[in-house]
Amino acid sequence: MKILIINPPAYNKKDYIREGRCMQTKSSWAALWMPLSLAYTAAFLRQDGYNIRLIDCIAEKMNNKDLLELAEKFSPELIIVNTAFPSIKGDMETVSLIKNSFPSPSQIFSKNLGGRAKIAIIGLYPTLLGKRSLKEFNQADFAVVGEPEWVVKNLSQALENDNPLEKINGLVYRRDGEIKINLPQDLSKNDINQLPFPARDLLNNGAYCLPTNGEKFTLLSVGRGCPYNCSFCVANLYYGKKFRKREVDSIVNEIEECLNKYRIKNFLFWGESFSIDSVYGEKICDEIIKRNLKITWATASRVDTLNKQLLEKMKKAGCHLLSLGIESFNQKIIDLTHKNISLEQIEKAIALVKKAGINSMGHFIFGLPGETKKTAKKTIKWACQSSLNYAQFYCVVPYPKTELGRIAKENNWIKMNNFSQFDLTKSVMRNENLTAKEIKKLRDKAYFKFYFRPKMFFQTIKEVNSLKSFLSALNFLKWIKPKK
After folding, report:
1. Which string of b and e fits 219-241 if b means at least 16 CB within 10 Å?
2. What's the domain range around 249?
3. What is the pLDDT of residues 314-355, one digit of tens each?
4. CA–CA separation, 42 vs 54, rounded Å?
5. Alpha helices in 356-402 (DSSP H)
6. Do 98 and 221 belong together in one domain?
7. CATH number of the domain bearing residue 267
8. Is 152 inside any structural domain?
9. Average pLDDT over the chain, rounded to whole?
10. Which of 162, 253, 255, 476 has its CA 20 to 30 A from that of 220?
């Protein structure tokens, strides 16, 4: 079977990052990320002997016309399409164009395949919307709820061998004019150590570059799942609540492959928190140090799971940036999210990271329950006075299936016309104190106050070392400038 895996083209001239829970424009990070889930899915399917083509249309600067020409030449029987809330209109358009443009050329079709190429959508959109996602994507045949690799593998085998679809957990599909949804995946039983290394050989790795120096970088998975219950977060809906660790040797072997085969020495260690298990984090660092691998990497952490010994090892192993989930500098607001961290832990974590010689990036959300203009302004002031090197500021998004989504719906706080507005840069809900418009203004003000300071100007000049990185910095500053 021929299988085409697609990261859809830019929509409305915006390049989107679509990777699990992360759904943002490229300009929000000033860099394009590789579609890690798609590369894993491609590698997993290739193990079974399928003929795989993986196309990141954004990296290849392909539009829908280019994509259709490629699809026609490749003639796939199954097409996997990545989706995300902010780009959903464009993703739907791509699916419709593909479905209506060509049939599969195979002369022999299985009962499940029928007479045309079948299309499956993956990502957070079908994960959170379930059956509704196929109602919205009226040209798609299947949708995957949760991480995609095992569901797509089982689907491919079922289509090829005429096996029943009802037994594929995590699958949404059409049958006799109805939309069916199977039992959910037991994500805790998906052994991520069964997965081969992502199929980077099917991607244009030179398209994914750091904004500061233009060097190649890649995402690298260190584990999946999150045991915490933050009211606004979708991480454990997509990857499950059990933290599943990759074998340390496998992680570091993949790093070596990236160094030797792809000449990539910069990494984003992808996971909900590198320090969920600090001993595990130390073992990864120890193995990198033992093998004397000269790499640089960034990752994310909770503020309450860091310690001096782990941070020192991270620095020695090449960590240069650590993202911290702060959300707000108001204890009442934090408590309402069930994040279970304190203001003291936030300040202690930032101090520890700074002392270890690692740059820090704080992540903040405006408009959470309990937020007022006063609390938001206090958070902005504190962020500017803190030792954070960088910050990301978001508008609250009430995703379906989250506690926040339930609360917002019950209180009639959600103000949106379609799901493409579920974008962390836009405000789609009010809370008990602020309008959606006021939340957006506070978020814009935070970016302006934080980045348009003399400290940030000199820091940017120090880090920029090429024309390309200078232009990336300008684009980022243009993106964060408040719109009137």
Report:
1. bbbbbbbbebebbbbbbbbbbbe
2. 209-395+436-480
3. 999 999 999 999 999 999 999 999 999 999 999 999 999 999
4. 7
5. 373-385
6. no
7. 3.80.30.20
8. yes
9. 90
10. 476
